[in-house]
Amino acid sequence: MEATRVGVAPVYSLEYHPHQHILALRWRGTYSLRELQESYRAALNLARRYGSAHWLLDSRRAGPIDLYVTQWLTQNFLPRAVARLAPRVLRLAVLCSPARLAQLHTDAPVGEAVAEAFAAPHPYHTRVFTAEAEAMAWLLREDQPAALSPASQPVLSQQLVPGRQAGDQQREKSGDAPRPSLFRTVFENSPLGHKIVTPDLTICQVNPALVAMLGCTRADQVEGRRILDFAHPHYRADWCELQEQLWACKIPCFTLQTCLIRADGTLLWCQVHSVRLSDHGQEMGYTTLIDTTAHMELHTSIKRLYDSQETALHMAAHDVRNSLANIKLSVELLRREQVGEEAQYLAIIEQAAVQAEAILKDVLYLGQLDAGQLRKQSLDFSAYLDAHLDTHRLVARAKGVTLVLEVPSHAVQANLNPHNFGRVVDNLVSNALKFTPAGGRVTVRLDKPAGRLRLAVQDTGIGIPAEYHAHLFDKFSTAAREGLAGESATGLGLFITQQIVRLHGGLIRVESRENEGTTFVVDL
Question: Which segment of 170-174, 244-248, 465-469 scores lowest on mean pLDDT?
Fold first, then answer.
């Protein structure tokens, strides 16, 4: 079943299944109530445009709130959606985690609240699922209501064409003096940023609000340039995706959240809505930009407040670690005098103390990362990796695993923090060794495609089950597993790895098939 990606934002994504008239709204991570509202409004606008009659709400990756999200949406937005779309029955499939679904039967407050929301007299059918295939099958049942007819593409005034050509001839014949068109009045005076672009993203026309948003003083400082000239380097791909969706895939509209750079070098966070249109045979895109910089700054302030609250946890962790050190010392002293069953009990106590200490070390390390103490320096990345793998080569030899480093023949310079990035290398290589049996191979590869540094750690181990992929980088991840030799895991290793990579301005992703090996890729 092919789906088209029609919207993307930091906390949600939208997919449209054209043949089945299904709109899938997926959340990920944690977010505010306002971001929930924004995601649903975007979905509703797209549903009205495509005439989608069936909804798939996926909250499985929405963090700890899960079905609470669905309950809130069911009670607040869906009745409005039905009223605005069509007076007919819709189908709503809700995807939630198995653990949260189980709470419907074990946790009375949750169960009663969600059951009450679903039992409300709404003009649509609702079912809760934990598997997407089952949800899709239910949505596509033959007895479902007929899908709405696709909405026609909105037609904008021909006065969008630069030069104010529309209506001029008629006014000349009538002898009336030229007057600003209704569209131009809205375009020029709107507090939102508006621009008209060609398929290669060249800006043809901008309104004063967008000129001011970009930190410029005149329209000619913006017109004639490509929007990519203003895009933040890390977010240029957003505009390339918009270009592909509008003109290659012929999607009538596209929504995204991205970041631009103002003339003074400061960041402009914005929500972008772009509509593809044709006027006098010329393909164009009409784009509206909403400045969300204040919202992003507020979000950052809230995060700092959250971080300050974690300081108390870090202080407590320090105290607990001292107590664990005393326990380990006492166990070591007692083991010298005990044998037999008593010694076994002491070994269990010591193992528990070591595991608890490992978790505390990771928590404290996260606190250091949150503090933003990251000083970078330029170094030879190839030599850095070679020296950093010395300890891992000893472990690999003991396990009977081949550890190989592949680097370019010339020196590769990188700007990074040697201590913190060493944690990335340690976590990825140690994980590869933990899950690769004797006779296997772990390859650490460094290259520089398209001018960007890429570090890949590839193994021939047991791979990662598909159901774990979505949670690999979660804090205290449920995807944490013991190694083949019984090595323990804290559930924080890959989360810490991702945080360090992001602090270096990079991205990390994973490619894995069960029983076929795993590859982690870091792009800097």
Answer: 170-174
